[in-house]
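Below is one such record:
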Amino acid sequence: MARALVTGSTTGLGLEFAWQLAGTGHDLVLVSRDEERLQTVAEQIRDVHEVEIEVLPADLSDRTRLDKVATRLTDPVAPVDLLVNNAGYGLRGGFLEVGIADHEKQLDTLMRAVLVLSHAASCSMVQRRRGAIINVSSLAGYTTAGPYAASKSWVTVFTESLAMELQGTGVTATALLPGFVQTEFHERAAMNMEGLPRVTWLKAPYVVEQALKDAAKGTVLSIPSVKYRTAGEVSRIAPRPVVRALTSPNWYHRMRQRAVLKARRRASRKTLRAPWQREDEE
C-alpha cells in the first residue's frame, strides 16, 4: 500500500489531499503545527477509511522540527511514496507594514521547508526508483503581489528544475498552481475577499483531484480549470509593466475598497426600500 506525507494537512487543500488520498487507499503521515487538530483529523479519516495514519506535529519554520519531518521521509522501513508540500499561509498587510521576523518565518515555511523536504524525499525515492512530489505553488507566482507571490514563483521554478533533474529516475515532481480556492486560507490571514466575483473561485475537491491526476501522469505544472490556465499564460507573456500595474501589492487594498463600496451599496438599498416592504422581505 502506498504512503503519502502531507504538510499543512488540517485545513484547506492539505486536508482535502488527506481525505482524497485516504479514499484511494493511501496510508498517511499528517504534518501540521496543531497537534490536537491533527489527532482530530486522523480520527475522522480512520472512521471512514481503513488506512494507517501517523501524526507528526511540526512547525516547519522551526529548523529542528523540519529536520524531524525530513528524517521521516527517509525511513526505509515505512517509506513515503508521495510528498505533498502544502503548508503555507499569508500575511495581512504590505511588505513594510509587517515585521521582518514575520516575513522570515513565512519564507521559512513557504520556501526552505519545500527545499529541505523535497531534497530528503527525492534522495530516498530515487534509491527506490519510484515516487512523486507535489509542491503547492500558486498562480500568484506569476504576479508581483509581494513576498508571498515571490515565494510561490520560487516554488514553481524550483519544482520545474527538480522535475528535469529527476527525469529517468522513476520519480516525478509537480507544481500545483491554483487560483482562488474556497478554503480557510484568506480567512486565517484576515483577508476580506468579498470583492471577488463568484466565478473566480474553485472548489478544493476539484483542485486536489486534478493535481493528483496530473501528478500520476507526471505533469510538471498542474493548473486546474481552463480559465486559470488561460490567466496563467496571459500573466506569463504579458509585458512586465502591465503585470506590475495590475498585480502590485496595492491589489489587496483595492480589493478591500471594492468590498467596502459593495457593502455601502447594500446598506443604501436597505435604506431605500419601499414603504410597504417588510424587513423580512429584504
Summary: Residues 185-197, 273-279 have pLDDT under 50 and may be disordered.
